[in-house]
């Protein structure tokens, strides 16, 4: 088993380098829920071509990028943030990162230019697993679970997030970061 760390809310899931499911190709997922009922999270590094204004055209400032949270319920909008002093009602996932909160308050903050993309991240859809499914995928080495990350990484628009997170896991994993996306090119 590649991952000595178990899955839990607030941990990252890093996809194995040759993940066959294109939805999760070189993905970094923040788990927001993990229980006997299953698991849920959001892909942090698959930015869509949409901006928030494409989804909510009534906002005056809406140049905040939207990410593909996962292949489940892609017609839903979710968000994580790190500003509970501005947004009430969010649930702390881990280390000052919150999921959800008062959406009307968020829209007002965005309209008034009081909320920036380094404080909040929006997702269409989510990644979900049925009871036991994620544990089985971890045993099959489809994912590496990690609790080593900085909040700045979560809210960055970094195109190389997967590679950076893999390298941050240490020497045991660093070589994986340089694997080609297509193993036939090796």
TrEMBL record:
The highest taxon in the source lineage is Bacteria
Q: Which Gene Ontology cellular component terms are annotated?
A: cytosol
What SUPFAM superfamilies does its record include?
A: VC0467-like
Q: Which residue stretches, if any, does this entry annotate as coiled coil?
A: none
Q: What InterPro entries does the entry give?
A: AlgH-like
Describe the family membership recorded for this protein in Swiss-Prot or TrEMBL: Belongs to the UPF0301 (AlgH) family.
Q: Which PANTHER family did the record assign? A: UNCHARACTERIZED PROTEIN YQGE, UPF0301 PROTEIN YQGE
> What protein name applies here?
Transcriptional regulator
Which species does the entry assign this protein to? Mucilaginibacter phyllosphaerae
Task: Recite the lineage of the species.
Answer: Bacteria, Pseudomonadati, Bacteroidota, Sphingobacteriia, Sphingobacteriales
């Amino acid at each position: 088993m590649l991952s000595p760390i178990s899955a839990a809310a607030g941990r990252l899931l890093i996809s194995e380098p040759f993940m066959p499911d294109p939805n999760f190709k070189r993905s970094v997922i923040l788990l927001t829920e993990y229980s006997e009922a299953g698991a849920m999270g959001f892909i942090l590094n698959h930015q869509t071509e949409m901006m928030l204004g494409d989804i909510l055209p009534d906002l005056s400032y809406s140049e905040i990028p939207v990410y593909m949270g996962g292949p489940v319920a892609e017609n839903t909008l979710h968000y994580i943030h790190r500003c509970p002093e501005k947004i009430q009602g969010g649930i702390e996932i881990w280390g000052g990162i919150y999921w959800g909160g008062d959406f009307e308050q968020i829209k007002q903050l965005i309209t008034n230019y009081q909320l920036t993309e380094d404080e909040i991240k929006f997702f269409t859809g989510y990644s979900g697993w049925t009871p036991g499914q994620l544990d089985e995928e971890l045993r099959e080495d489809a994912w590496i679970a990690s609790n080593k990350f900085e909040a700045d990484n979560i809210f960055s628009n970094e195109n190389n997030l997967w590679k950076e997170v893999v390298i941050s896991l240490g020497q045991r994993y660093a070589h994986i970061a340089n694997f080609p996306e297509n193993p036939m090119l090796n």
